[in-house]
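Sync notes, pocket subgroup
Present: LS, DG
LS reminded everyone that the earlier model was apo-only. Rerun requested with flavin-adenine dinucleotide included. Inputs:
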Amino acid sequence: MHLETDVLVIGAGGAGMYAALEADRAGASVILADRSLIGRGGATVMAQMTVAVALGEQTPDHWEYHLADTLTAGRGLCDERLAAILCEDGPRRIREMDDWKVGWAREDGHIKQAQAPGHDRPRCVYVDFLSTGPAVSRTLRTQLNGVSGIRRIGDLAIVDIAVRDGEACGAVALHVPTGRIVTIAARSVVIATGGLTRLYRRNSASSNMGGDGYALALRAGAELIDMEFVQFFPIGHLAPRLVGMDPIMWDPFRYKLGGKLLNSEMQEFEEGYASADTRSDGNYVLTRDLATYAISKEVEAGRGSPAGGAYLSFQHIPEADIRRAFGPVVDRLAANGIDLARQPVEVAPIAHYHMGGIRVDDALQTKIAGLYACGEAVGGANGANRLSGNAITEALVFGARAGRHAALRASNGAVAWSAEAARPAVDLVNSATRRDAPNTAAMIVELQALMAEKAGPFRTDENLRIAADALARLTRDIGETPLSSADGFDPVLVDWLDLRNMLLVAQSVVLPALARTESRGAHQREDYPGLDDSWAVNQLVSLSDGRLELSRSAPVTGRGAA
Ligand SMILES: Cc1cc2nc3c(=O)[nH]c(=O)nc-3n(C[C@H](O)[C@H](O)[C@H](O)COP(=O)(O)OP(=O)(O)OC[C@H]3O[C@@H](n4cnc5c(N)ncnc54)[C@H](O)[C@@H]3O)c2cc1C
């Protein structure tokens, strides 16, 4: 099957949906494709907390203050141009979402703005109760429903971008339910495929977050930046089973109510890891990085909870206070069989967000003309560490901007479709053969365990080398011919294609992580503790003749620098 459009948007999370709407507003025809359901597949719909934006509705604010906090959190590595776009355009997008009736929580007639860690003032908007992501997704889906120029196609996994004479001219896709190959001619292509947290055994996102967009960009000839910076969330939900709720929901309650972290001996352990400045009021609520460290070390010492994390307990808090703080969330927990007044839950650090990603200019265009990126797929804006609430703002702001620029390029004429450029990907999928080995599903599990153990929140030279060697072995093992199990819907072929991407992306994380011999933001090297000023540079990853190459940017300057 062959389709044609002005703008192809890959991925229908917050960034992709906004990109499609904005490209349509600019007069382009649009195909919005997602390997899952439109507006229901990625991280956006799962987010439940806050969106950072300098609205100044309740406390005077300016986007420059938001930018200052973003740059501080980024530990000297932010691309200041991108960070400034995120902060300056944020209010426009958030107010537009308000006009579209997203339902931001209000107080005294004003959009309510909550305080969140790392912000110098209350700046974070949200939709009650823990409904921010679903409300954002629903609002954008509703807007899409009212537009006729956007063709929405779910269950369509993009396999590769077609590039002709150095310019993007479309893509090759697999229609997952039927196994059919679909080629799409497009004057501009926007990658909005979100992050890579599926590379890790424990993660907060859905199973389609294997970093496809990074692999697509690399193979198309674009560069990746800051790939070593994967953000781990210290108290992700581990057990008991929690369905339909955000696995990172515990943090605000832990801060608000003083939830206690306990080890297998039911002993509080935060105090032992608290640095002097966290001991205010005799209270040992650790910051995220210290909490991640403390839980990991307790588990290592054999004092982990049964599922391999720590207990988080609210049992010392009166039941009425729990109900007041958690509101209707208490009932959703009860539906999952969890009664916080009577039992602790188990928590552990989980991969949550990726600061790194595709390198773009301030039109969100990659090195390849006509190839754009937006949302979490983009690297650079958040440097070495992301400020809480910045990711949804990033998705909406960068989505709109990429959509606009992609439409502009399409209207100015662009390179024509080339079946020849699409042929390698078409041939790859067509070459899939029925074989029993290797077991790609088991290899995905192995890769996730490897990344968690050897390239997780705390890294060493030895572990990263083990990871690099094992990834090279797995890459050899999957071979170059896809596996197939059936005509039509072919889960084995999908696993093979996923694994191909996951291996490339995992290597793109390990390579710069090994090179960066310092600890900065989310990249913590146990063998190189502390920040090293000579490392105030971004690392770039590219693909040349099938080999990953690593290079460094010039030292970061301007206010993005530490
Ligand atoms: C549980 C959770 C809670 C969070 N809470 C917050 C919060 O409170 N505040 C905040 O700011 N941020 C939060 N984040 C981060 C934030 O939600 C994400 O960074 C942001 O939503 C990413 O949006 P996106 O549109 O770039 O990607 P996504 O929303 O992840 O969408 C990407 C889409 O691309 C599709 N896709 C992937 N590969 C392909 C392919 N090959 N072909 C076709 N389609 C493809 C996927 O199916 C998916 O639908 C949270 C994240 C998670 C996981």
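DG: Residues 118 and 387 are 6 Å apart (CA to CA).
LS: DSSP finds 15 helices and 23 strands in the chain.
Action: DG to write up.
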